[in-house]
Design brief:
Layout (H helix, E strand, L loop, with lengths): L1 H6 L3 E4 L19 E12 L5 E18 L5 E6 L12 H18 L5 H4 L7 H11 L4 H9 L3 H24 L11
Antiparallel strand pairs: 1-2, 2-3, 3-4
């Protein structure tokens, strides 16, 4: 799959496997309908024939149908448009400023000092920033899938802010814990 992608347009689809995939991993386990197409940026072939790849997310897609299942799946997809913020009351410049403050606060609390190296914000629009943050932060795969499936950009924006605030709240609570028992059964 990686060899074919790098010989062509370098595009590859990434879909999250649904729960229960363990029973048929080498078959064709069910995947979520909403997925992502990414462009391969770097490839490292490993000694065992596997690959490490780095992707740059290009677009959300909806899987319409699988047209091939072996040796890897190939799907016909429908590209999903990113809806812009349409509200008249929405001040994107102010929202970006507030979002950066929230994000920087979280990254500082988890010990990331070089966040400008991790996330390349300029000159992207808010939609691009939200998608970038959703892909790199330490959200669960299900939280990331839920964000990916959200078509309304305003709702996606609110959800990602809520997730960051929940993480900040958990960090604040964890920092207040003074006693950690040696025996974990005390928890």
């Amino acid at each position: 799959m990686v060899e074919e992608a790098t010989a062509g347009d370098h595009l590859i689809g990434m879909a999250l496997l649904k729960k229960g995939w363990e029973n048929s991993y080498f078959g064709c386990p069910d995947v979520y309908e909403t997925a992502c197409v990414g462009k391969i940026q770097q490839v490292e072939k490993l000694y065992d024939g596997k690959y490490n790849i780095m992707l740059y997310g290009e677009s959300r897609v909806k899987i319409v149908e699988f047209v091939q299942s072996h040796p890897f799946r190939v799907a016909r997809v429908e590209y999903l448009n990113e809806g812009a913020f349409k509200e008249k009351q929405f001040n994107e410049k102010e929202e970006v400023k507030l979002f950066f403050e929230l994000l920087h606060n979280y990254l500082n609390k988890i010990g990331v000092e070089n966040y400008d190296d991790c996330i390349k914000f300029e000159p992207h629009c808010l939609e691009s920033i939200i998608n970038q943050v959703a892909s790199i932060l330490d959200f669960t795969v299900q939280e990331k899938q839920d964000l990916l499936e959200q078509n309304d950009m305003k709702v996606r924006f609110e959800k990602i802010k809520m997730l960051i605030n929940k993480k900040l709240m958990a960090l604040n609570i964890a920092r207040k814990i003074k006693f950690i028992p040696k025996d974990p059964s005390w928890n």
